[in-house]
Amino acid sequence: MPPTELLPLTDAERAHERRVRAKIAAAIEAAGGWLPFEDFMGLALYAPGLGYYAAGAHKLGAGGDFVTAPELSPVFGRCLAEACATVLTGLDGGDVLEIGAGTGALAEEVLLGLQDVGQLPHHYRILETSPDLRERQRTRLSRLPTALSSRVTWLDGPPEVPFRGVVLANEVLDALPVARLRGNPQGVSTLGVVLEGSHLREMARPASRTTLALLAHQNIRLAPDQEAEVCPSLAHWLVTVTQTLASGVALFIDYGESRARLYGLDRPQGTFVAFHRHRMHNDPYINLGLQDLTAWVDFTAVAEAALEANLEVAGYTTQACFLLACGFEKHLAALRARLPDTHEPLAARAALRLVLPNDMGERFKCMALTRDYDGPLSGFAIKDFTDSL
Fold first, then answer.
1. 164 contacts 153 by C-beta, under 8 angstroms
2. What residue ranges in 158-244 does DSSP mark as E strands?
3. Tens digits of per-residue pLDDT, 104-118?
4. Contact at 8 Å (CB) between 298 and 230?
5. Percent helix, strand and coil across the chain, each rounded to 5?
6. Is the pLDDT score of 251 beyond 80?
7. Domains of the chain (ranges plus CATH)?
């Protein structure tokens, strides 16, 4: 990846970065001087009060580090509302659980869309680990009519009581900590983090038996010098967030590929990147706690984890196919009709980014997982790539 000119940090940001660095340095020392990358990534993103998703950084939107589909266009949320309505109708009612709700933009449009078709959920629950994002969600959703805002509640963990309905997770899987691996003539190395003075540095070690067993189980082979990522916590995480879904559908939307395409030799450096103020780069050891760290999702691994969690893979397709099958053109026309002429062209261009092949349309995929549900699904009628997994 070519060098990217990053924006300088403010004094307050530098002070925060030093606190995160001290936290990680202590973890490296406690681990004997070498910290597996997935543990480093977990601290950088989720250390209480310090990590990127656990502190007060402004993450999403024009003033943040990246823009997700719900912030890009309300059409995304209206299409998701159509998918939710199909399931809630098939269940004769139920709840929606959104994991990682960002600014609340998706929740807002899903609730408005469900209201339009007379299929509001009993409850719209949001599982959010970021205190500042939770506050932004509260502020945004409090402006909705009381009939909608009163249905919204926030959770610190997955629901404890079984429920029927829909689980929504947009750009959540890519933020799970990953192990970074590198092939070598002797086998596979695992990347970890060491401390040199006050600087963090990458150091490879032979992969552990646990890592080698995971690679063998997933049939992943790396050529010498090929780098890649795997998510050791995926299966456990999926079980945890879906264990009380008694009947319904879990929808996951994220950038990713099937395993055969993700680990091909055309990706010799893997997919791991960092985002800071809309600038993408590949140095995870700067701007600690102030930048997003992410890797593409192995949707074959998601499907395998789903089967282990007593879920069925009911559909897998591109975001473009999913949104078009969920009424994208209808919802875009409705958006354009209610906007003034001066705003309509810009809004239309933003919405089209969701489905264009060279933008989000092909890079992002949607997977539907079901449990005790054989009713209709929206989003997979145009093309279902489940057989490619």
1. no
2. 163-170, 179-184, 187-196, 199-206, 227-230
3. 999 999 999 999 999
4. yes
5. 40, 25, 35
6. yes
7. 11-62+177-229+263-294 (no CATH), 69-175+235-260+296-388 (3.40.50.12710)
